[in-house]
Specification:
The chain has helices at about 1-20, 265-270; strands at about 25-40, 45-55, 60-70, 75-90, 95-110, 115-125, 135-145, 155-165, 170-175, 180-185, 190-205, 205-215, 230, 240, 245-255. The chain is mainly beta. It is globular. The relative contact order is 0.15.
Length: about 280
């Protein structure tokens, strides 16, 4: 027990030393705390809190409290539904704004030699809408090395996510002669996010994810007149500018133990993948 506490203290010390470096404003801190309860053999309920802040000054401008329910529908697949209350300080001098998010997701787990592979498709809907979107479709592809290291069951992993934006606020599109050619929502693929890091399980009920990710917005150009980060008519202001940044991501997930049946090793490994 003392050894586990010492290692946890070491992780926090390392993270704190990284956070305190003199980095650019484009780097952020994500931290998540989740509590998972196994309702029955196939159904899990998870409550979570996520905070996002600037690494430069530890000013947190995003807070998310969520509830998620997942259910196994086959040996290697599951579905989920979630609801979140989000508060965001969109400018340093502004009050926090409230947003509500609902989401659905489907995940398929496969395996190739010593690597666990997860494909996931999800959809999110926000009230009220943001400038760039009101709903998003998200596809993710994740690879986790099956063999763990040390008693903490450390496993490296990597993940890529692709985002499609839909039903954002209308934006005016002009040609080179500054004639209005379209007024529409910028519906298209506009974001990718890549994670790399480690999953740990220092205790049967505690899972940890420690990773770094880069978030990049861009214009895929799949659909006509769907770009963001474009000039207004007078070409003096960029409308819907890109929001690209890096972040250190630290997530803890604690599973509430049931008296009926102890969780299997496979179930415990899945815990580290629930929150990130």
């Amino acid at each position: 027990m003392i050894k586990n506490i010492s290692i946890l203290f070491f992780i926090f010390s390392v993270c704190n030393s990284v956070f305190c470096q003199d980095l650019t404003d484009q780097h952020k801190i994500f931290h998540t705390y989740g509590f998972k309860y196994k309702l029955n053999k196939k159904t899990d309920i998870t409550t979570s809190y996520t905070g996002i802040g600037e690494m430069k000054d530890f000013h947190f401008t995003y807070h998310d409290v969520g509830l998620n329910i997942t259910r196994d529908i086959a040996k290697k697949s599951k579905v989920g539904v979630g609801f979140d209350w989000i508060t965001i300080q969109e400018r340093d001098d502004s009050n926090f704004s409230n947003y509500f998010r609902s989401n659905v997701e489907y995940a398929l787990n496969t395996r190739y030699k010593k690597v666990d592979i997860t494909h996931e498709i999800g959809a999110e809907f926000y009230i009220p809408k943001f400038n760039k979107f009101q709903y998003r479709w998200i596809y993710s592809f994740e690879m986790t090395y099956r063999k763990s290291f040390t008693k903490w069951k450390i496993r490296p992993y990597s993940k890529i996510k692709i985002y499609y934006y839909g039903n954002g606020k209308y934006i005016d599109y002009y040609d080179d002669e500054r004639n209005l050619i379209a007024k529409k929502s910028p519906n298209d693929i506009h974001r990718w996010r890549w994670y790399t890091g480690f999953k740990l399980r220092p205790h049967r009920q505690l899972s940890i994810v420690l990773s770094y990710f880069w978030n990049e917005e861009f214009n895929a150009g799949i659909f006509k007149n769907s770009d963001i980060n474009i000039y207004n008519k007078s070409r003096t202001v960029i409308k819907y500018p890109y929001n690209s940044y890096g972040a250190i991501n630290l997530a803890f997930n604690y599973t509430i133990k049931t008296k009926k049946k102890a969780k299997s090793d496979k179930d415990q490994q899945q815990d580290a993948e629930t929150i990130e």
